[in-house]
Design goal:
The chain is mostly beta strands. The protein has 4 helices and 40 strands. The protein has 3 domains: 223 residues, Sandwich (Jelly Rolls); 144 residues, Immunoglobulins (Immunoglobulin-like, Sandwich); 220 residues, no CATH class. The strands form 9 sheets. Strands 2, 4, 5, 7, 12, 13, 14 and 16 form an 8-stranded antiparallel beta sheet that branches. A 7-stranded antiparallel beta sheet has the order 3-6-15-8-9-10-11, with no helix packed on it.
Length: 634
Amino acid sequence: MKKLIMFVMVMMLCMATAAMAADPVVFHSLDELLDDCSGNGYTAEMFKGTLAYSYDSPASGSSGGSSLSLDGASAAKNGIDTCIFDDTPWSIVFWFKTTGVEQMIAAAASAEVGLGEDFAVGIWIDAVGAVVADLWYNSAVGTTTEGLNDGEWHHCAVVYEGNDNVTIYIDGAEDVNDDFANPYNFDCSAANSTFSFGDSFNPDHTGDLEASPYTGLLKDVGVYAAALDLAGVTEAKNNGVSCYGPANPLLVDPNTTLVYETGETMGDFDVSLKFPPLGQGPANQGTPYTITVTIDPNGGFGGWGASAEGEKDIQLLAGQGADNQITLTFDNTNWNQPQTILFKALDDTVAEPPELIEINNIGVTITSTVAEPNLNGDLEGNPWVKLVEAQVWDNDQADILFTYTPAEKDTPKYPVTGPVQIWEEPRWFFGSPYDRWRKIGITLQVPPLVDGDPCQPTSVKLQAAVEGDNPPLTDPTLPFAETDDPNGIIFTAANYNVTQSIKVWGNDDQDLQAIDAVADGDEDYQATLVVTVIDGGGDPRYQWQELEDPEDPCSPLIDVALERTVTFDIEDNECGAYGILPMDVSNSHYITDPNWAEDDPDCYVDIYDVIRMAKQWLKCTDPQGTGCAKPPEE
């Protein structure tokens, strides 16, 4: 009886050496991060190139989601203790997709060489597309299957069983089992011993066969401290587990868009899937499904009619029913073909202070239920959702609007959408300088009304000031001192949209504010024009009260006023001590940059100046032509 018990124990021990369901020491699902899903903390890092991902992943069996994309100049490594690759059983598993040859997939460097051209344990694609396991200086073992660089996904498992024996499995089937002619030799004692995937290699260790780093996709890279048997390899192939649970298959582009209430302007976005809707579990592996995606203008709360949160600020074009929803379907044939959703802003003619932009989330939700749990939602049972942030600009809201002129032009007409360029250095004309100025135009967006009542027009008083280390000069001089300053900016319901201008130019202090400008157009320093409502005239859209502490309903009320700013990029003496030359009459920037007019100088006399002068000369070839400037008669 004792002999029988001992026999059973020995058999159980022997069976344990061929692991069927071993836990990985490290496992990277490669879902847009390099985390270690095993829980052992061996997060990888890119030590060559940059991190890049593809939404191409194996159709079944893998953890789904994205895959790591390596371009031949990038490689990753983790901090695993490479003594796992000592002369004891171990396994390396991974999905791969490539069209390359003689490229490294994974390598563990020994103390003798470090990571680089040579290695201790390496897995690579040879010249005929076979997978080769190369164990230090021993003869390599390669698969009998060739052409695995066919641009399709393949699963590979390299299993070292000890005693110089290695088995390679391809796509869940044993391909080759062989012994190495020389003893397995691996020294993992040095600090530079590391495990990488994608690095360059030298298969024959002589320098005669220097080969490239890996170019292709990798997915579900795992290392086991055991020799997996066929059942273990099959389980690793068919049951990849993401670090992050099931992967959200929805892909939305873009996820932010801006529309305007006035004119009810339109926006759009595309919806597709990141990977084909196929079964991934053992019971339904590879089963195609049809996925239903519902587009909801109320952020997934049930459309217009089903929730108190359903404000009608946007409308889905082609939306159906009272809830204005759209239903899309995706299957294994159209999963990666974007379907476009159009929507528009709705002008409700109601101001929504104090913010100009109202955020409306459009919900994109998988609403179908299929037999594949990964397609039905996350680990907590919530359906897969993506939100599109529709930013609705409320043109009925009070606002201070700015426009600007080209240099030395009187009528502001270009909306200010970013920094406005001005210059310290004056323009020189026949030895005499004159300032290069612009005008900033100011208007209001809506007429000022007492309590917003159209029957009670009122006036709004604004104060302007310039801020900065060397603030620009202005006409009128800023800031305005008091609310009754004759230079103050006053708007009424009758002139709220009539431009009032401030002339502005750089203050040439003969000092360089920045000495690191390296190209024309570099802004040397900045200043700010600040325009603030100082008397709202009883219109709460321009001046209102709010709690001093929004978290404390008992805190006192304080006055709050609408304030807007314009940033100036001030170019300081870019043309040097001599200023702008008389022949510097144009530039190349005006072609692409609205901050530049065609006749703005750029500190260089070049082909653009010649073209500008030629145009003027051609206009005057006919002295009676309307384009020729003639001197005034005495």
